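Q: Got a minute? One more chain.
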Amino acid sequence: MSSAPADHQPSFWLSARIAGVVWRVTPDCREVTRLTSEDRDRELPFTTRTQLGLHRWFCKDCARYAAQLDLIRDAAQRLPEHLAKSKQPVLAGDARSRLKQALRERIRE
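A: Always. Here it is, folded:
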C-alpha cells in the first residue's frame, strides 16, 4: 500500500491557500462591483485597481460584470455613429409636439 509522504499535500491545496489569501486582501463582490462601476468614471488608485484585478482573476462573476460594463460603454460610444448612418426619418418639431399631445390625451381617456 503506497501513500503520499506526510509533507506532500494535494495540488489543490496550494490553489485553495492562494484563493484564501486573495479573498482576505480584496474587497467582497458587492464592493468590487461598486468599484468596477466607479472605475469607469474616474481612475482609481493603483492599489485599488490591483485588488480589483486580483479579485476578478479568481471571481468569474465579477470578471463577467466588468466585461459587460465594457461592452455597454463601447456600444454607447458607437451609437451616435450608427444613428448618423441610419436613414430613418426624423419628425419635425411640430409633428413631434402634436404626437406627444395626442398620446397625452389618449392616456387621459
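A: The chain has one domain: 13-108.
Q: Perfect, thanks.
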